[in-house]
Write a structure and sequence with these properties.
homodimer, alpha/beta, Rossmann fold, 6-stranded parallel beta sheet, 4-stranded parallel beta sheet, 11 helices, 12 strands, DNA-binding
DNA sequence: CTGAAAGCGCTAACAA
DNA sequence: TTGTTAGCGCTTTCAG
């Protein structure tokens, strides 16, 4: 018999019980008498029976599946950030025995809401419309990676302002006054906030803000390189650089090496992300680590509560990043 | 009305037609009269109706979803190879409008076969048992990344022997006779075949095989580093190294720089993968590129034929890799 | 071109 | 503790 066509009826017949008992065996075996349980067990094995997920779901059973929606963009598969989010969420779900349905959407929105109990929406790049559409469908939703203060939705985000502030302040406290900032893509919330934090830190340290020290480099190594060229072609070069991502910071390191600028002697560098890919011949980057794992499992917890209707209050959570001191900032 | 509870019945009532017509609208609108089609269209929009996937599937409609099964292992999210496979498959499926259900399995096999029409099994590390279990379930299956000559299953793989052969031969043809090989994890088919190719190429070039030039480094940078230390502590150091992955090749480059060994003047290096992460301060690695994209869409094509029962013959396809000549092999 | 009605395989009352 | 049975929302004959 084709194993793909074995149904609950076959199992019931084989075991000499009703289909209801087989169903009970599947969902709550402990309420069955031991002997029937064993007979069903045997029949299941013998027939190689596997319940049809779709039938279970349609009949009102739960699917125990969460969706993770991520906007697709060029380079997402090379993005440490996006991958860490996927990793964090899948780990958090594994512990809870919930399946993960990942949906990366490019132009067309082909997310099948009916496949999941709830959704974690990773708003890595700007994507408010997609979020609104989701919310309209009344699916339990938690946003990660972005503060959504103006909507009735829970989120878990990282305090990027604080990250930018701490990084810059760290440089200032170690004596730097010529601190440049390589910004990310300023149309994205996190990049903007890191810049704001940078500005605030300079202000609090009584360092005047110089616009030529602030360069938008869109999280791109190529753009970072260009920004650096420009910055170092003028007379008044910085003694420290805060890059809004480790990728860009790594470009700074490469640039410095080529130009014979000693890091950290002549130039201190601090990045953002704590990206393990960014090792530079044994050089370890001083950086700002985001609690991505914590973000993921906090979001999963909140969504689980929502789905189970245990705690449906809207929660807006902001997690603090942490400075990781390594080799690229002169601590003298 | 709760948008999650709008059913086909509501739409039918709203449009003043039968549910059968709404179903036709969903699946094959062209057979409906224009006027009804428009009325249904309107009702769908007004009620924000979305069919329940599970009901559709259960009722015999197709799901148009393929599964991609990948064994989970430490570092999979940092693995260029695994990510390229995911990327390739998702691109190939996107063109065909088929959904992708990715299943990364760690210890427990929690793949829900009933969610998909067929499966692409990426046997990156050894995982024959899982494959056998899958085959037993009679799900249409295509294996990628591994030759499975002894089972009745189609596969698409890369000719790793040829890759290893060509890489080594390339070095030999450019005058090298002291050619070392940093092997990958030799319990994995591809690593073993690259080594075999290396051996064969040496033989054909009348270069005696020296076992101290062959070091297993498990695709790991750390192990590669150790192997290099050992290799370069002896007297008879190689003039060329073929590394079974770009990651390991990159470690060679770092090692050489530290030791003041000039690449490619004193040491030629060739990698494997064409991994864009492996850039080394403007240095471009000569390497062997695997046709991963082609592998992915070939596999998708085969699986689609299987699922549609168009061509159910078993196909065993081996694709040739290609040498990418760049800066790290001395062409003099 | 359209409607009525019979399932798809399972869960969950309700009864026994 | 177990069986009977009514759906879940949709697709698909089969008539008309």
């Amino acid at each position: 018999m084709n194993p793909r066509k074995v149904t609950i009826i076959d199992v019931a017949r084989e075991a000499g019980v009703s289909i209801a008992s087989v169903s009970r065996f599947l969902n709550n075996p402990s309420i069955l008498r031991k002997s029937s349980r064993e007979r069903i067990q045997e029949a299941v094995k013998k027939l190689n029976y596997r319940p049809l997920i779709h039938a279970q779901r349609l009949a009102g059973g739960k699917l125990d599946t969460f969706g993770l929606i991520i906007p697709g963009y060029e380079g997402i598969f090379y993005s440490f950030y996006a991958l860490e989010i996927i990793r964090g969420v899948s780990l958090a779900l594994e512990r809870k025995n919930i399946d993960l349905h990942i949906n990366i959407f490019w132009d067309k929105d082909n997310f099948k809401a009916s496949l999941v109990d709830g959704v974690i929406f990773a708003d890595i790049i700007n994507n408010r419309n997609q979020l609104l559409r989701l919310l309209r469908q009344k699916i339990p939703t938690v946003v990660i990676n972005r503060k959504v203060e103006d909507l009735d939705v829970s989120f878990v985000a990282v305090d990027n302002f604080k990250g930018g502030y701490e990084a810059t302040n760290f440089l200032a406290k170690h004596g730097h006054r010529k601190i440049a900032h390589l910004c990310g893509d300023l149309s994205v919330q996190c990049a903007k906030e890191r810049l704001d934090g940078y500005r605030e830190a300079l202000k609090n340290n009584n360092i005047p803000i110089k616009e030529q020290y602030i360069k938008a480099a869109g999280f791109s190594r190529v753009l970072a390189r260009e920004a650096l060229k420009e910055m170092f072609s003028s007379s008044n070069t910085p003694t420290a650089i805060f890059a809004a991502s480790d990728e860009m910071a790594q470009e700074v390191l490469g640039f410095a090496r080529e130009k014979g600028i000693d890091v950290p002697q002549d130039l201190s560098v601090i990045g953002f992300d704590d990206n393990p890919h960014c090792v530079h011949d044994g050089f370890s980057l001083t950086t700002v680590r985001q609690p991505l794992g914590k973000m993921a499992y906090t979001a999963v917890d909140i969504l689980k509560d929502l789905v189970d209707e245990k705690n449906t209050s809207i929660r807006k959570i902001i997690l603090a990043p942490e400075i990781i001191i390594r080799d690229t900032v002169n601590l003298a």
